[in-house]
Amino acid sequence: MYEGGCLCGAVRFEIAGPIRNIVYCHCSRCRKAQGSAFATNGIVAAGDLAITSGADELTVYESMPGKTKHFCRVCGSPIASKNAADPESVRVRIGTIDSVIAERPIAHIFATSKAEWEQICDDLPQYPSYEPGR
Prior knowledge:
Blueprint: E1 2-5, E2 12-15, E3 20-25, H1 28-34, E4 39-45, E5 49-53, E6 58-64, E7 67-72, E8 78-83, E9 89-93, E10 107-109
Parallel strand pairs: 3-10
Antiparallel strand pairs: 1-2, 2-5, 3-4, 4-9, 6-7, 7-8, 8-9
């Protein structure tokens, strides 16, 4: 079980299952959505994510047709994103999780789109788009 929430504490959630495919995404959309060099995301089963408080404080932005980003309307913290093409999965922003995370990142994706000022300094695989198998 993982617990997490937004910066201001208005939104709290629990994840009842494992986090799969944690990746660092360097695409320009993730950079803009996070205001940083990359987003660190992991996939959870939709049924494993429960908003335990502040569901009314979540707001949704459709970034592309069928793809939505869910964030706190009070502090702006990004919580999760969903893709209508994969309703059984939710992509969670790993930085919002307060618990110790057992799983570890597996790759850098969209590495060829990284910010020109960024250096990737670890030995994880780097892919020009999604990691193989997705």
